Amino acid sequence: MNFASDNSYAAHPAVLTAVADANSGAVMGYGADPVTARAEAAIRDLLEAPEAVVRFVATGTAANALVCAQLSPSFGRIYCHDDAHIETSECAAPEFFSHGAKLVTLTGEGGRIDAATLAQTLQVGAGVGLNGGRSALVSITNATEWGTVYDPDQVAALASVAHAAGLPLHMDGARFANAVATLGCSPADLTWRAGVDALCLGGTKNGAMGAEAMVFFDPARAEGFDYRRKQSGHVMSKNRYLAAQMLALATDGLWLDLAHRANTKAQVLGQAVVDVGGRLLQPVQSNGVFAAIPKAAHDRAQAAGVLYHLWPDKTVQGADPVPLRLVTAWDTPDADVAAMAAILRG
Amino acid sequence: MNFASDNSYAAHPAVLTAVADANSGAVMGYGADPVTARAEAAIRDLLEAPEAVVRFVATGTAANALVCAQLSPSFGRIYCHDDAHIETSECAAPEFFSHGAKLVTLTGEGGRIDAATLAQTLQVGAGVGLNGGRSALVSITNATEWGTVYDPDQVAALASVAHAAGLPLHMDGARFANAVATLGCSPADLTWRAGVDALCLGGTKNGAMGAEAMVFFDPARAEGFDYRRKQSGHVMSKNRYLAAQMLALATDGLWLDLAHRANTKAQVLGQAVVDVGGRLLQPVQSNGVFAAIPKAAHDRAQAAGVLYHLWPDKTVQGADPVPLRLVTAWDTPDADVAAMAAILRG
Amino acid sequence: MNFASDNSYAAHPAVLTAVADANSGAVMGYGADPVTARAEAAIRDLLEAPEAVVRFVATGTAANALVCAQLSPSFGRIYCHDDAHIETSECAAPEFFSHGAKLVTLTGEGGRIDAATLAQTLQVGAGVGLNGGRSALVSITNATEWGTVYDPDQVAALASVAHAAGLPLHMDGARFANAVATLGCSPADLTWRAGVDALCLGGTKNGAMGAEAMVFFDPARAEGFDYRRKQSGHVMSKNRYLAAQMLALATDGLWLDLAHRANTKAQVLGQAVVDVGGRLLQPVQSNGVFAAIPKAAHDRAQAAGVLYHLWPDKTVQGADPVPLRLVTAWDTPDADVAAMAAILRG
Amino acid sequence: MNFASDNSYAAHPAVLTAVADANSGAVMGYGADPVTARAEAAIRDLLEAPEAVVRFVATGTAANALVCAQLSPSFGRIYCHDDAHIETSECAAPEFFSHGAKLVTLTGEGGRIDAATLAQTLQVGAGVGLNGGRSALVSITNATEWGTVYDPDQVAALASVAHAAGLPLHMDGARFANAVATLGCSPADLTWRAGVDALCLGGTKNGAMGAEAMVFFDPARAEGFDYRRKQSGHVMSKNRYLAAQMLALATDGLWLDLAHRANTKAQVLGQAVVDVGGRLLQPVQSNGVFAAIPKAAHDRAQAAGVLYHLWPDKTVQGADPVPLRLVTAWDTPDADVAAMAAILRG
Hints:
By secondary structure, the first copy, chain A, is an alpha/beta fold. Chain A is 42% helix and 16% strand.
């Protein structure tokens, strides 16, 4: 049983079928092929953003770091949550790609930044002068690293503050599908209509093998971006195989269907946590359960060989209750979910 | 008809089958899965290098740039041929990854550096002091960007010069399979036994969707390399799909079989060039034909809509004969090869 | 009246005399001159470190960033205090020079990290794996950004924790002279004998025009450092003028004498703060007074045109008491100090 | 006797006097002082460029690299001469500061690029696409690394080609004073009136201790530049000492007077080379003599302990005639010049 991460799980068969369908004949390389054109169009359609520039890469770290570097100079300050993936989990890729931009982190309940905190932080940032660097970008994650979501109003409030300070807003959407599935809003409402300037739309955790879309809603913000992507080794010569994955997810609402499945499984686990007397550290709003469970329940799970991470600090030893993270994917077996729920309940 | 590049062509069905086979169940991410372990072992076996560190990335540019950055400080001088892919075709990725290393280019017949030229250049390099930077790495491409090959003796001669100067030797093997297929030597003879310290073993042009292996024959040279790869966004969370591709190629000699097929098609085109009175700019030793053909033949091919690149300067207009490059892949249709040969012959 | 910064003040006449003395005849450039040799030797003597590698640069930001980049790879984690100059005041220079290293900040009373906090943080850092980067360096500032000092025992405790984790210890000594003047210990006791691996020994704030020494106590840690310095534009061709400044400060104890003078003036201001009912946020242990003073006193000082910074947040408006920083230099006029004391006291 | 470099020589007394004059009282740091304001204004006046943004740094490598990074993205191509200082003598600083920009070098007689060669090279550069990077900047050196000069018409021809391709033109003017002294034109005619967009105006080789001005004629091109300079450690806190040096040189035509003196000495040496049967590799148009002299003359000079560099390859051994470089400074003793002339003549 594996609840360690959604990237532990497989790709959806439709993704592999799309790849196989793309696998015939000669096409021009580096994205100048018809599958790529169709996939980019599909993402634009999905977002109701006909002017947007859409590009693909194979990893979420690349997607975020490339967009950060595109939108921040080396001397830029990038504002994000303390627990943002770009801060905690990308081995300083944003700093590397941008040549030194500083991630300035903000505290916020549930993995979310709130607009007032952002406003206050930007005010300080406006005063740091040469010493502190220049405010450049605000980045949020949706769904967050704590499994919660920003709704369109919350996004719009942040965008309003960012824009008032002259800064663009980036959304790390590694689990964007999970957020949309929960919120029931349109992707456009959650992004550009709310003021998002650049979106990383994750495919990998949603059921691709390894594919992410980067979307610049204003094409002017993508100036030179293809060179940047190439220079970092993230332009695939046989780009059709990357594009086909995103095309499959964007077709017939597969991406949302998969996200719904994953979210539902997380709900089951969340209920089991509550049943056993555990505490949900955050409400279950996507495909992750963040909870503190009785040590006895943790011990049972360990004894059964269940895989998951202690959270947020993997080095924790001996705590009771035990803080942990359980992540589900579209294809986490329902039997495993049920078994884990049973183990939790003892 | 497409002779523009081997990356215009498809992936071998066995590659897709291997990917599909890997697509079940949950595994740990970031390379801690059994397919990755098997693929790394397969590459070590193929190279008779049981101690080597093997890692995978999705693009050749990433592979070369990561290895260059691993083996050169920011103030390093990396010696390569004038026409080396790392110099001409990677958008300064080695400079970006290494934070500024300078590519010092050497002239050499047939895309090859010769040992005497290297020795002389390194002597100059040893004298440039702080102003010029510190000699750090020698990089060669095999098969070369001109379709020729270095044989093991030639590699050994270069390695000897490089090592005498304290520098490691890197081989860009984007078309390593094509070189081995031509030479009939063992991969080990062409690499570590000849003194190669790091190899980029290409899968993409050989029949993968997008997969390359990076091999450090001395594990000490790979110190910290996984962090470097992660920081550049080149660690795939679902690494099994990348690894499965290399595993398929390494299984039952598929990689060499595919290279043989591509090479054979190039021989057919090369003969047609000669037949029409064209001049082979280099002998056909891998899967590329570099030739100057009568303008009339070029005009016929253009009229027929055949795709290929003028070479080495894509901006050439009106020359007669016309310098060009024709590249074949394992799956370039034999009918297309025959048709192109017929067009050339008029 | 200027209490904004010690770098608002002038250079000591002996520094200019030394520069003038160096200004004759032809010498070899880039540090291969006799003044540089003497100045490097003088710093080694001052530190009782005959094997140390000593180099000079013109700014403290360059000194710190170069040393950080020398001791941390791009994927390194550099541990420092929340208020460390390298974190707050160098425009992300350490990140730029290192190509992306992440500064991981620690809370600590009085601008000091304590050993237990460091140990705990390093334990977490050891567990972050590829995602979080690799622990690389611990950096402390002495005297701190809050005007306090680490004594040799405190340094040794931190060094012990750092070394146990395999990390070197860097000391930003922009105001090292002020710390030594307060502590009365030997420079060696406060650095290498306590486990410091690299020291940035500041001259600029101590009475130079613009000169800082970087010291690597183990020459092996300086491998390639001259290239790094050159590549960042920090090797002066006429290095004698830089070296002469440090030589002057190191001669006949001038550096300590100047630091004593500055420290003494800060004591006077600190007493005035107390007298007016203000609160010292930290004890006055070097040449800075960090205090919260009644708004009325602040208003009097503003009305008199006294220059100083609100602290730690320059954007604070309307607070009472008013948090601020007063900095003295060797040549802050005693009359100004007295006048400011009088203003404070009303 | 030292003819190794103009940076082997001293600073003019007026420079030290200006520094001493600046050395009193408290001023705000980081360039917000009156001396800096006056020095920036003096440079603007000298160039008849009232709108220009002028900033100072302490080294020529920093000046060039900062301007290159300001005007080129990481994926940019910077066009310069094969022997450009930025290519041969700055330890890849432009690549480091820009995060990877590629220097594309052009051959040209006398260290000069000619407009036709540039036009042809840019045409190729326009065709390299993602693989080759994007053309970003043209950089020339005046006086050149071969002691020759571009006159205003030659600069204008290059600027015209660069601008037609949408690229700005940078002039490395480490020896700009020497060029102006030879040409007798106005600094404005040789720069912005001829189309130069950014100038590095050297003070160090002209008689400063270590000071260079960077000038952006269009302020829009300097957007964010102060942050860039700060992040690289090149903002001096006590900037007045840097600015005072440039102010001294710009006052009463001192800079041109010093350049005339140096140029005149080079003429004497050049004549001696001709007299002894040596060959001037280039006409003597500034303060350097590039010549091939009979080995016997070289042996005499070596026996007399005269310092100079073999050129362009410092590793040359045993050639006859011996290619070398002799550089003069404003304060190279006339007696040494006469003595060297005598040695050459045997």
